[in-house]
From TrEMBL:
It holds the Pfam family Rrf2. This is Transcriptional regulator. Gene3D superfamilies: Winged helix-like DNA-binding domain superfamily/Winged helix DNA-binding domain. GO terms for molecular function: DNA-binding transcription factor activity. It comes from Enterococcus italicus (strain DSM 15952 / CCUG 50447 / LMG 22039 / TP 1.5). GO terms for cellular component: cytosol.
Length: 144
């Protein structure tokens, strides 16, 4: 999920500033490595969320406004499940129905939760995230 966070952070930053930024500048704001930013934004570029400009004043820029891009669009670019099951309990060849079936039951649950999460992401735009950041700024009394 960290790639999703990097993507959302970077895209909101690009849209908020309505400018072109290098992977180094984005990485500094995101607090990660520029290589990670390039890998993530390459996926976003393939989905048409960002474009790149080459040259001295080159970098990444958003292809549309923040209102037009949903978090589902970002999720589909990154292609990493929100909820992942990296370990399975039990053993499929056991005679015990719990041991032999739990991994499949949990995988089904995670699939269902991911579908619900993706449906929710379709209702949230990058602009909504920017608005949330303004609210956080106001609560803290700080400036973005």
């Amino acid at each position: 999920m960290s790639e999703f966070t990097i993507a959302v952070h970077g895209l909101v930053y690009l849209g908020h500033n309505n400018s072109i930024f290098t992977s180094e500048a984005l990485a500094e704001n995101i607090c990660t490595n520029p290589v990670r930013v390039r890998r993530v934004l390459a996926k976003c570029r393939k989905k048409g969320l960002v474009q790149t400009k080459k040259g001295v004043h080159g970098g990444y820029f958003l292809t549309d406004n923040l209102e037009a891009i949903t978090l589902k669009n970002v999720y589909e670019a990154i292609k990493i499940p929100i909820i992942q099951n990296t370990w399975h309990s039990g053993y499929i060849n056991e005679q015990c129905m719990i041991s032999s079936g739990m991994s499949e039951a949990m995988d089904d649950l995670y699939d269902e939760l991911n579908k619900d999460a993706v449906a929710k992401l379709a209702t949230i735009t990058l602009k909504d995230m920017e608005v949330k950041l303004y609210a956080i700024q106001n609560e803290r009394g700080t400036k973005i």
